[in-house]
Amino acid sequence: MRPRASKNPRRLIEISFQNIGRNLLLSVATTVMMGLILFIFNIVMVLNVLTTSSINTINEKADLIIYVSENASMLNITNMLNDIKSLPVVKEAEYKSAGEALKDFLKAYPDKADPFSTYNIDNPLPGNIRILTKKPEQHPLVIDYLNTSNYKNLLLDMESSNENQEIVSRLVKVTSFTEKLIIGVIITFVFGSLLIIINAIHLSIFTRKREIQIMQLVGARPSMIRFPFVFEGAIYSTVAVFFSFFLLVAFIEGSHLMEFQVFKESFYPASLFGLELAGSILIGVISSFFAINYYLKRTLVLDK
Questions:
Q1: Of 248, 182, 195, 232, nearest to 22 (Cα)?
Q2: How many CB atoms lie within 10 A of CB 284?
């Protein structure tokens, strides 16, 4: 009766580590190359997180201010506010009366005396509607809508955060570039890792060629022959992920990125580690399986 791979897992795992030990230099080179590719991917991911979180932060501050005429009735203002909120591009809209605008002004400058009360000056600040769109570049859509609506005569002026829009526009370009770069690095990692591991397994098979032939001659199942090499590929991938994350942690600590609250709230290292570990092991197993299967199909004593 032929030995089953499932009854000898410990022995098969020992064989995997023996294979790695026999080709130690090759094993180290394989894991380092995979780890460095993953490290580059992680750096690009960090850059993408930084730009995306910065865009979200600026978006919250890039508002559009609509100044309302003092002759506008509360009914017209309420209707205009509801119509603005109903626009698909509008995330939030809030009305502040002239009195509330004055309170905000005095609160912003508490160290200065109130000149309006001191000199009996009427409140010169008009009521306003603060509009927050989903994206700063959508401000012109809201402005065009108001200029062509029935509320045009109720408006005094409009003020948009143009400077923030320019910053966001630059960050959007950077984010778009990093997203394309991430796709490129992923493709490079997948094909690069497949080739690197297949090459390493082929060399490992070559050093154990006679041993594999003897195992086949005594009736060992193909699955029993495959397992040590498949497990070897999984080991390469696992060590590479740990190596890449060691470099990533050193980079983050060295650059003090965790001191930035925006980055800290948007970066999830545990999730990234889990996804990379699962993906890398899958690549390692698949590439090792193809490598050993290719060899077994070329032998004459393969049990089909």
A1: 232
A2: 30
Half-sphere exposure of 290 (CA within 13 A, CB side): 12
CA angle in degrees (0–180, nearest 5) for 79-81-85: 115
Instruction: List per-residue pLDDT tens for the chain, 304 residues long.
Output: 444 444 567 777 777 777 777 777 878 888 888 888 888 888 888 888 887 777 777 666 667 888 888 887 888 888 888 888 888 888 888 888 878 877 777 777 666 666 666 666 777 778 888 888 877 777 788 888 888 888 888 777 776 655 556 666 676 677 777 778 778 878 887 888 788 888 877 777 777 777 777 777 777 677 777 788 888 888 888 999 999 999 988 888 888 877 777 777 778 888 888 988 898 888 888 888 888 887 777 654 444 4
Q: Quick one: which of 132, 127, 130 has its CA closest to 68?
A: 127
Other residues' Cβ atoms within 10 Å of the Cβ of residue 66:
26
Q: Which of these, 151, 164, 149, 148, lies nearest to 64 by C-alpha position?
A: 164
Residue ranges and CATH numbers for the domains of the chain are 5-57+167-298 (no CATH), 63-160 (3.30.70.3040)
Nearest partner of 287 among 200, 166, 181, judged by Cα: 200
Model confidence, pTM: 0.64
CB under 8 Å to 245, separation ≥6 — which residues?
42, 269, 273, 276
CA atoms within 13 A on the CB side of 69: 11
Matching residue, tokens 């730009």: 51
Distance in angstroms (rounded) separating the CA atoms of residues 246 and 235: 17
